[in-house]
Every structure is written in structure tokens, then in C-alpha cells.
Amino acid sequence: MEKRGVMKKYFILHPAVFKLDGGAMFGIIPKPLWSKYIPADELNRIQLSLRVMLIQTPTRNILVDTGIGDYHGEKFDDRFGVLGPKNPLIQTLEENFKLKPSDITDLIVTHLHFDHIGGLGHDADQHINVFPNAHLHIHRQHYDYALNPTLRDSGSFHSQYFRPLIEQAEREGKVHWLEGEEGTILTDGSDKISFKCSHGHTPWLVHPFDENFIYMADLVPTSAHIPVPWVMGYDIAPGRTTIDKVNFYQFIIQKNLTMIFEHDMKIWGAKIKKKGESDFEAAETFAVTSIDPQKPELSFGQYHS
User: Fold this and answer.
1) Which CATH superfamily is domain 7-304 in?
2) How far apart are the C-alpha atoms of 197 and 183, rounded to whole Å?
3) Which of 56, 215, 276, 302 is least crowded, fewest Cβ atoms below 10 Å from its Cβ?
4) pLDDT (tens digit, 0 to 9) for every residue of the chain, 305 residues total?
């Protein structure tokens, strides 16, 4: 793809894996259906990727989400089947890209659940930001919600961990608060990364996109969740999720974007198409090239944006 503008490189990273209950991941969908796509272990858990995206331009190293981190402790890691090296994201960046944590210029946070923001700090007590030079791009309304969630989803927000880190970054002038349903996250010359919000999984969930890709986060966490009714039981408003999915799919088709799945072990992305009158399906899927926790899964290639 050749266009004038900034040269960008996209990489999809796989620092670690974890497990969640399969029934909770698929809500009202019966196990005989969803288990055809992702088999469960003896505890009914399914293995999921903790996928992170790296976008490189001549002047920026941009991360989308940070994975689960390693601050949780043995009991937590055993319960959620967390597997990965010590400092998983740091190791992945250093070993594969020769990038130090201080080289990251921007961190786009889709939302503040522990499996998306957990890699921001070194541990739970010292509150030392892993990425000291990065500007954090966080939705203000989502941050406010994350500090006062419902009892139903409060366990997903480890505010005692992320709040001191974000407050420190804000004191240093390194937080860019996103506002409203959509807008611009950052610009780099003639290029920009924008966002749209969904609300069914958690209020004000940010979906970064440019002219090539859109990061689905937990609106469509795996390729198995593409059908509109296949909604997670974790979602705070499952009915709203179905509305969000239809609206996003129409936008994705219009813009000819490739969706990136944050939690699918085997499929990192897909093109989407209409299926009948009321649903959608994958027009094309893209498989990972490796699930080694310490290596990038795939380089998307270079694009003049």
C-alpha cells in the first residue's frame, strides 16, 4: 500500500496468556456451540491471548494496551491461568525490537480492566510507571467510572494499582484525556489515530483506529464473538453490546478496516461482511504466525499512511 505521508509499521505482540470461564466469555450461548471454537479445560476455562499492539512511526513508538502484568501474585495467577515471563511486555519489547520502556512515546488505554492495564506499573506497591516517557491516552468518563463501578464489575478494576500511576502521570503533564463518543487520539504529521466508543462491555470503552485497522478490545474479544448475539456474560449491558456491534460493523465495512482481536489465541484479525438481514460474519480471517509468549506474532508490514 503506497500513499504519501508517514511510514508506519504495525506489530501484534503476545506477551502472555490467561484463562477465563468459558460460560462467562460467551454469555447465553450454549457450551456445545462455543466449545467448537475454543475448547475448555477441566475447570471450564478457555485460554486467551493478552494481545498488545505496537505502532511505530519515524518519531513515535505507540502501544495499545499493556496486558495483564505480573503484580497479581501466585494465587491470582493460578486462578486465572496466567502464563508468561517476568515483566512480559518489557521482555517482548526489548528482545524483539531493542526498545527500552523509556522509548515508548504513547500508550493508548482501551479500558481499565486488569487484563488491559496491568502492565502499566512494575508492581502493586511501588507505583513506578513502566513507561516513564509515555503520554497516556485515557477516556476521562471511563476513568471516572472505573473509580466508581457497580458491584457487579468492581472486581475487574484494580484502582488501587492504576490510580496512583495515572495520577502521577497527570501531575507530570503526560495524560491526554479523551472526551465524548469519538475523536482524535494523536496526530503525527499528516497521519492520525482516532477513536470511537462502545458502552456494552464497560462504559466509554475506547476503540483506536486509523485508515487500516481498528482495535476491538472487549467489544469483540475473539473471532468466535463476531456474530452479533455472541456477547460476553461479563458485559455490564449485553443488550447494548449487540447495538454497539452492529454500529461498529457498519462503520468497519464502510471504512474497509481490519478488526484486531485482543484475546483470540489463533486469529489476530478479520475483515467483516454482512450476513443476511441482521447479522455479520468474517469475510477473511488472519491467523497468528506464533504463540511464543516472548516473540511478536506478526508484522503487518509497512504502510505509507
Assistant:
1) Ribonuclease Z/Hydroxyacylglutathione hydrolase-like (3.60.15.10)
2) 9
3) 276
4) 334 456 788 998 888 999 999 999 999 999 999 999 999 999 999 999 999 999 998 899 999 999 998 888 899 999 999 988 888 889 889 988 899 999 999 999 999 999 999 999 876 666 788 999 999 999 999 999 999 999 999 999 999 999 999 999 999 999 999 999 999 999 987 789 999 999 999 999 999 999 999 999 999 999 999 999 999 999 999 999 999 999 999 999 999 999 999 999 999 999 999 998 889 999 999 988 755 544 544 444 444 33
The sign one gets for the Cα dihedral 55, 60, 66, 70 is positive
Say if CB 268 and CB 59 are below 8 A apart: no
Residue 193 near residue 215 (C-beta atoms within 8 A) = no
Residue 39 CA to residue 269 CA, distance in Å, equals 20
Coil, helix or strand at residue 271: strand
What single-letter amino acid sits at 67? Answer: G
Domain range summary for the chain, segments of one domain joined by + = 7-304
**Residues 14, 57: Cα–Cα separation, whole Å:** 20
Q: Which helix (H) or strand (E) holds 53?
A: strand 52-56
Q: Enter the pTM of the model.
A: 0.92
CB 171 within 8 A of CB 129: no
